[in-house]
Protein backbone atom coordinates (compact mmCIF):
# COMPACT_ATOMS: atom_id res chain seq x y z
CA UNK A 1 0.00 0.00 0.00
CA UNK A 2 1.26 3.48 -0.85
CA UNK A 3 2.63 5.29 2.18
CA UNK A 4 3.30 2.24 4.34
CA UNK A 5 6.88 1.76 5.56
CA UNK A 6 8.92 0.03 2.88
CA UNK A 7 12.37 0.24 4.44
CA UNK A 8 13.19 0.94 8.05
CA UNK A 9 16.62 1.84 9.40
CA UNK A 10 17.19 1.90 13.14
CA UNK A 11 20.26 2.94 15.08
CA UNK A 12 22.63 2.51 12.13
CA UNK A 13 26.24 2.99 13.17
CA UNK A 14 29.16 2.63 10.80
CA UNK A 15 32.87 3.39 11.12
CA UNK A 16 35.80 2.85 8.79
CA UNK A 17 38.85 2.34 10.98
CA UNK A 18 38.91 5.27 13.42
CA UNK A 19 36.53 7.34 11.36
CA UNK A 20 32.95 7.28 12.64
CA UNK A 21 30.66 7.99 9.67
CA UNK A 22 27.18 7.06 10.90
CA UNK A 23 26.37 7.55 14.59
CA UNK A 24 22.94 5.99 14.94
CA UNK A 25 20.73 6.84 11.97
CA UNK A 26 16.97 6.27 12.18
CA UNK A 27 15.19 6.60 8.86
CA UNK A 28 12.00 5.29 7.23
CA UNK A 29 11.39 5.08 3.50
CA UNK A 30 7.69 4.94 2.60
CA UNK A 31 6.32 3.01 -0.33
CA UNK A 32 5.86 5.10 -3.46
CA UNK A 33 7.51 8.26 -2.16
CA UNK A 34 10.43 10.31 -3.42
CA UNK A 35 12.75 10.82 -0.49
CA UNK A 36 15.66 13.23 -0.97
CA UNK A 37 18.80 12.93 1.15
CA UNK A 38 20.65 16.20 1.72
CA UNK A 39 23.77 17.10 3.64
CA UNK A 40 27.34 18.30 3.37
CA UNK A 41 29.89 16.45 1.32
CA UNK A 42 31.51 13.54 3.16
CA UNK A 43 28.61 13.41 5.65
CA UNK A 44 27.79 9.76 5.02
CA UNK A 45 24.91 9.94 2.51
CA UNK A 46 26.42 7.46 0.07
CA UNK A 47 27.44 5.17 2.93
CA UNK A 48 23.88 5.26 4.28
CA UNK A 49 22.42 4.54 0.85
CA UNK A 50 24.65 1.47 0.46
CA UNK A 51 23.16 0.09 3.69
CA UNK A 52 19.69 0.25 2.09
CA UNK A 53 20.54 -2.54 -0.31
CA UNK A 54 23.08 -4.47 1.75
CA UNK A 55 26.19 -3.25 -0.09
CA UNK A 56 27.43 -2.28 3.37
CA UNK A 57 26.44 -3.79 6.69
CA UNK A 58 26.12 -1.69 9.84
CA UNK A 59 28.40 -2.11 12.85
CA UNK A 60 25.26 -1.68 14.93
CA UNK A 61 21.58 -1.25 14.12
CA UNK A 62 19.13 -2.89 11.73
CA UNK A 63 17.82 -2.39 8.22
CA UNK A 64 14.38 -3.92 7.64
CA UNK A 65 12.94 -4.30 4.14
CA UNK A 66 9.24 -5.12 3.89
CA UNK A 67 9.38 -6.44 7.44
CA UNK A 68 12.43 -8.62 6.91
CA UNK A 69 15.78 -7.76 8.50
CA UNK A 70 18.39 -7.56 5.73
CA UNK A 71 21.33 -6.07 7.64
CA UNK A 72 22.62 -9.46 8.73
CA UNK A 73 22.06 -11.43 5.53
CA UNK A 74 24.84 -13.06 3.58
CA UNK A 75 25.65 -11.89 0.05
CA UNK A 76 23.69 -14.88 -1.29
CA UNK A 77 20.60 -14.25 0.83
CA UNK A 78 20.65 -10.62 -0.28
CA UNK A 79 19.63 -11.44 -3.84
CA UNK A 80 16.03 -11.13 -2.63
CA UNK A 81 16.63 -7.50 -1.60
CA UNK A 82 18.59 -6.71 -4.76
CA UNK A 83 15.60 -7.72 -6.90
CA UNK A 84 13.46 -5.21 -5.07
CA UNK A 85 15.92 -2.33 -4.86
CA UNK A 86 18.36 -1.22 -7.50
CA UNK A 87 20.92 1.50 -7.28
CA UNK A 88 22.12 4.05 -9.79
CA UNK A 89 25.67 4.78 -8.68
CA UNK A 90 27.29 8.20 -8.47
CA UNK A 91 29.46 7.42 -11.48
CA UNK A 92 26.58 5.82 -13.41
CA UNK A 93 29.31 3.95 -15.26
CA UNK A 94 28.43 2.20 -18.51
CA UNK A 95 30.57 -0.38 -20.24
CA UNK A 96 32.01 1.52 -23.19
CA UNK A 97 32.67 -1.59 -25.25
CA UNK A 98 29.02 -2.66 -25.11
CA UNK A 99 26.02 -1.26 -26.96
CA UNK A 100 23.21 0.48 -25.09
CA UNK A 101 21.11 -2.70 -25.29
CA UNK A 102 23.94 -4.86 -23.93
CA UNK A 103 24.51 -2.42 -21.08
CA UNK A 104 20.84 -2.41 -20.14
CA UNK A 105 20.54 -6.20 -20.45
CA UNK A 106 23.59 -6.79 -18.26
CA UNK A 107 21.86 -7.13 -14.84
CA UNK A 108 19.28 -9.53 -16.28
CA UNK A 109 21.97 -11.69 -17.82
CA UNK A 110 23.83 -11.67 -14.51
CA UNK A 111 20.59 -12.88 -12.93
CA UNK A 112 20.47 -15.76 -15.41
CA UNK A 113 17.95 -14.59 -18.02
CA UNK A 114 19.15 -15.90 -21.37
CA UNK A 115 16.05 -15.95 -23.59
CA UNK A 116 16.87 -13.51 -26.42
CA UNK A 117 13.28 -12.44 -27.03
CA UNK A 118 12.69 -11.75 -23.38
CA UNK A 119 15.94 -9.81 -23.08
CA UNK A 120 15.22 -7.64 -26.07
CA UNK A 121 11.60 -7.04 -25.05
CA UNK A 122 12.60 -5.96 -21.55
CA UNK A 123 15.46 -3.80 -22.81
CA UNK A 124 13.01 -2.00 -25.15
CA UNK A 125 10.56 -1.45 -22.30
CA UNK A 126 13.28 -0.04 -20.05
CA UNK A 127 14.52 2.27 -22.81
CA UNK A 128 10.96 3.44 -23.38
CA UNK A 129 10.60 4.37 -19.73
CA UNK A 130 13.65 6.65 -19.98
CA UNK A 131 12.55 8.02 -23.39
CA UNK A 132 15.37 6.41 -25.36
CA UNK A 133 13.31 4.12 -27.55
CA UNK A 134 15.16 2.81 -30.59
CA UNK A 135 18.66 3.60 -29.25
CA UNK A 136 19.55 -0.08 -28.64
CA UNK A 137 22.49 -0.26 -31.04
CA UNK A 138 24.25 3.00 -30.11
CA UNK A 139 27.61 2.91 -28.36
CA UNK A 140 27.80 4.86 -25.07
CA UNK A 141 30.70 7.02 -26.31
CA UNK A 142 28.43 8.55 -28.96
CA UNK A 143 25.81 9.67 -26.41
CA UNK A 144 25.52 12.95 -24.48
CA UNK A 145 26.04 13.00 -20.70
CA UNK A 146 22.29 13.17 -20.10
CA UNK A 147 21.60 10.23 -22.41
CA UNK A 148 24.28 8.16 -20.67
CA UNK A 149 22.58 8.88 -17.33
CA UNK A 150 19.29 7.73 -18.83
CA UNK A 151 20.86 4.50 -20.07
CA UNK A 152 22.19 3.95 -16.53
CA UNK A 153 18.66 4.55 -15.26
CA UNK A 154 17.24 2.08 -17.80
CA UNK A 155 19.72 -0.46 -16.50
CA UNK A 156 18.53 0.26 -12.95
CA UNK A 157 14.86 -0.34 -13.82
CA UNK A 158 15.17 -3.27 -16.25
CA UNK A 159 14.64 -5.83 -13.53
CA UNK A 160 11.44 -4.05 -12.49
CA UNK A 161 12.54 -3.14 -8.99
CA UNK A 162 10.02 -1.59 -6.61
CA UNK A 163 12.61 0.91 -5.39
CA UNK A 164 15.43 2.82 -7.08
CA UNK A 165 18.27 4.55 -5.22
CA UNK A 166 20.05 7.40 -7.00
CA UNK A 167 23.40 8.71 -5.84
CA UNK A 168 23.74 12.23 -7.25
CA UNK A 169 21.94 11.65 -10.55
CA UNK A 170 22.29 15.36 -11.41
CA UNK A 171 26.06 15.52 -10.98
CA UNK A 172 27.80 16.83 -14.07
CA UNK A 173 24.57 17.63 -15.93
CA UNK A 174 23.47 21.01 -17.19
CA UNK A 175 20.18 22.31 -15.68
CA UNK A 176 18.02 21.35 -18.67
CA UNK A 177 19.30 17.77 -18.69
CA UNK A 178 18.96 17.67 -14.91
CA UNK A 179 15.32 18.67 -15.33
CA UNK A 180 14.72 15.72 -17.63
CA UNK A 181 16.15 13.37 -14.98
CA UNK A 182 13.74 14.94 -12.48
CA UNK A 183 10.80 14.24 -14.78
CA UNK A 184 11.89 10.64 -15.16
CA UNK A 185 12.11 10.17 -11.39
CA UNK A 186 8.63 11.66 -11.00
CA UNK A 187 7.31 9.39 -13.78
CA UNK A 188 8.75 6.35 -12.06
CA UNK A 189 6.96 7.33 -8.86
CA UNK A 190 3.65 8.44 -10.35
CA UNK A 191 3.19 6.07 -13.26
CA UNK A 192 5.10 3.01 -12.13
CA UNK A 193 4.56 3.24 -8.36
CA UNK A 194 8.29 2.99 -7.73
CA UNK A 195 9.79 4.16 -4.43
CA UNK A 196 12.75 6.51 -4.91
CA UNK A 197 15.58 7.68 -2.67
CA UNK A 198 17.68 10.45 -4.21
CA UNK A 199 20.94 11.99 -2.99
CA UNK A 200 21.40 15.36 -4.64
CA UNK A 201 23.10 18.71 -4.15
CA UNK A 202 20.79 20.45 -6.59
CA UNK A 203 18.30 22.27 -4.39
CA UNK A 204 16.11 23.19 -7.35
CA UNK A 205 15.66 19.50 -8.13
CA UNK A 206 15.31 18.57 -4.49
CA UNK A 207 12.43 20.99 -3.98
CA UNK A 208 10.78 19.94 -7.19
CA UNK A 209 10.86 16.17 -6.83
CA UNK A 210 10.81 15.51 -3.09
CA UNK A 211 7.79 14.31 -1.19
CA UNK A 212 10.01 14.39 1.87
CA UNK A 213 13.57 15.51 2.60
CA UNK A 214 16.08 14.32 5.14
CA UNK A 215 19.08 16.45 6.11
CA UNK A 216 22.09 14.58 7.46
CA UNK A 217 24.72 16.15 9.67
CA UNK A 218 27.48 14.68 11.81
CA UNK A 219 26.43 11.13 11.00
CA UNK A 220 22.84 11.61 12.16
CA UNK A 221 19.50 12.68 10.73
CA UNK A 222 19.46 16.34 11.74
CA UNK A 223 16.10 17.27 10.24
CA UNK A 224 13.33 15.81 8.13
CA UNK A 225 10.23 17.31 6.58
CA UNK A 226 8.44 18.40 3.42
CA UNK A 227 9.74 20.87 0.82
CA UNK A 228 7.39 23.55 2.22
CA UNK A 229 8.65 22.94 5.73
CA UNK A 230 12.25 23.24 4.56
CA UNK A 231 11.52 26.50 2.72
CA UNK A 232 9.86 27.89 5.84
CA UNK A 233 12.58 26.75 8.26
CA UNK A 234 14.56 29.42 10.09
CA UNK A 235 17.15 26.98 11.42
CA UNK A 236 20.47 28.62 10.44
CA UNK A 237 22.04 25.26 9.55
CA UNK A 238 19.30 24.54 7.04
CA UNK A 239 19.03 28.10 5.75
CA UNK A 240 22.80 28.20 5.11
CA UNK A 241 22.78 24.90 3.32
CA UNK A 242 19.79 25.73 1.13
CA UNK A 243 20.99 29.24 0.29
CA UNK A 244 24.59 28.16 -0.24
CA UNK A 245 23.52 25.41 -2.56
CA UNK A 246 21.06 27.56 -4.43
CA UNK A 247 23.81 30.12 -5.07
CA UNK A 248 26.09 27.35 -6.28
CA UNK A 249 23.52 26.26 -8.77
CA UNK A 250 22.99 29.89 -9.82
CA UNK A 251 19.31 30.32 -9.01
N1 LIG B 1 34.58 1.98 1.79
C1 LIG B 1 35.06 2.98 2.54
N2 LIG B 1 36.20 2.83 3.24
C2 LIG B 1 36.68 3.83 4.00
N3 LIG B 1 36.09 5.04 4.14
C3 LIG B 1 34.96 5.24 3.47
C4 LIG B 1 34.37 4.23 2.62
N4 LIG B 1 33.23 4.72 2.08
C5 LIG B 1 33.11 5.98 2.56
N5 LIG B 1 34.12 6.31 3.37
C6 LIG B 1 34.29 7.58 4.09
O1 LIG B 1 33.08 7.88 4.75
C7 LIG B 1 32.83 9.28 4.74
C8 LIG B 1 31.44 9.54 4.22
O2 LIG B 1 31.44 9.27 2.82
P1 LIG B 1 30.16 9.37 1.89
O3 LIG B 1 29.05 8.56 2.42
O4 LIG B 1 30.64 9.02 0.54
O5 LIG B 1 29.79 10.93 1.99
P2 LIG B 1 28.70 11.75 1.15
O6 LIG B 1 27.73 12.31 2.15
O7 LIG B 1 29.46 12.84 0.47
O8 LIG B 1 28.07 10.80 0.19
C9 LIG B 1 33.92 9.92 3.89
O9 LIG B 1 34.87 10.48 4.76
C10 LIG B 1 34.50 8.75 3.13
O10 LIG B 1 35.85 8.94 2.86
MG1 LIG C 1 28.25 10.64 -1.88
Describe the structure.
The chain is globular. By secondary structure, the chain is of the alpha/beta class. A 6-stranded mixed sheet has the order 6-7-8-3-9-10, sandwiched between helices. A 4-stranded antiparallel sheet has the order 2-1-4-5, with helices on one face. Helix content is 38%, strand content 25%. Residues 45-46, 90, 167 line the site of magnesium ion (MG).
Concise account of the structure shown:
By secondary structure, the protein is of the alpha/beta class.
**Arithmetic mean of pLDDT:** 91
Strand order of the largest sheet: 6-7-8-3-9-10
Structural class: alpha/beta
Domain unit count: 1
Notable features of this structure?
alpha/beta; binds magnesium ion; 251 residues; single chain; binds adenosine-5'-diphosphate
Layout of helices and strands:
Layout (H helix, E strand, L loop, with lengths): L4 E12 L2 E12 L3 E6 L5 H8 L7 E6 L2 E2 L9 H6 E4 L11 H11 L5 H14 L15 H13 L5 E5 L7 H18 L2 E5 L3 H7 L2 E6 L2 E6 L1 H6 L3 H13 L3
Parallel strand pairs: 3-8, 3-9, 6-7, 7-8
Antiparallel strand pairs: 1-2, 1-4, 4-5, 9-10
Helix pairs in contact: 3-4, 3-5, 4-5, 5-6
